[in-house]
Write a structure and sequence with these properties.
- By secondary structure, the protein is of the alpha/beta class.
- It has helices at 23-34, 57-64, 78-93, 111-124, 185-191, 203-213, 244-251, 259-269, 274-297, and strands spanning 11-19, 42-51, 69-73, 97-101, 106-107, 130-137, 144-146, 148-153, 159-164, 171-173, 175-176, 180-184, 217-227.
- Helices cover 37% and strands 25% of the residues.
- A five-stranded mixed sheet has the order 3-2-1-4-12. Strands 5, 6, 7, 10 and 13 form a five-stranded mixed sheet that branches. Strands 9-8-11 form a three-stranded antiparallel sheet.
- The protein is globular.
Amino acid sequence: MDTQINQTDIQRLAVIMACHNRRELTLSCLEAFFQQSVATKIVVEVYLMDDGSTDGTSEAIKNRFPGVHVLQGNGSLFWNRGMHAAFSAAIDKGFDFYLWLNDDSDLYHDALEVLLATYAKLAAQGHERAIIGSGMQDSFTKESTYGGVKRHLWRCGRVKLERIAPGNEPIQCDATNGNCVLIPAAVVRKVGNLDPIYQHRWGDHDYCFRALKHDCSVWLAPGYLGTCKDNPIEGTWEDVSLPMMDRIRRLNSPHGFDFHDYAIYLRRHRGSWWPVHVIWPYLKVILQSTKQALKDYK
C-alpha cells in the first residue's frame, strides 16, 4: 500500500477497530490488512480502541505495527462504544473514507481494492453516499457467516430481516454487518458517528438504517472478502444446557440481547411489533428451559 502523500489525488482512509483481550486475533487481522494489494494510491491510518485488554494486546500492536493509533479504554466500552470512540478520533482528523474492521476478520488480499472499486462504480452511477459492506465466510466450511440484510414488511406492520449473501455484482440492501464496511466521507457528513446509546450490539445495523433516512444507500460488495467465524452458541444465552436463570442473565448482557439496547433498536427500526420482538428471546428461554425440566422430571 502506498503510504507517501505526494500527489493531490491520493485519497486518505481511516481504519476503525475495537478490541478486548484477543491479542492473536487482533494481530492476525492487522497483518492481513497491511498485506492488502491496492492499485489505488491511498494513505491509510488505523485507529484502534483497546478496551482494557490485559493480555498485552496494546504492547504487541505497538511493537509490530508502530503506526497504529492505539486508544485506551477501561473495559466498559464493548464493541459499539469502542468503535464510536475510535471513529470519533478519525472523524476529527478528516478522511476520504472510513473502514470499520472487526478484529476477528481476516481479509483476503484484494478486499480493500474490491471495496474501493465497488464504491467507484456506484459513485459513477450517482450513488456517492453509498455504504459498502462485505460478505464473510467460515475459513473451513466456506459457508456464509456475515453479510447484508434486507427488511421486509409483513402482515400487521411486522418487519422481518432477511440475510443476504454476496453475489457476482454489488447487491443493494438495507443494512450490513460491521465486520468490514467502507464508508465514504459523504455519508459521515450526513449520518455522523455510530450511536453510543448502544453498548455492544445493534450499532452497525442502526447506522445503516439511519443512513437510509438521510438519502444514503447500503450495498454488499461482490464476492466474499474475508473469513470470520460465526459466534458459537456454547456458553451463551442460546445454550440449552445452561440453567434458565443463567441463560436469562447472559441474555440480558451486552453480549446477549441487552433489554435496554435491544428495545431501542427494535422501536427505531422493526415496526409496530417491536414489543413482541423484545420479549420473545426471554419467552424462548423460559419455554425451552421449562420443556427441558419437564423432560428431565419424567
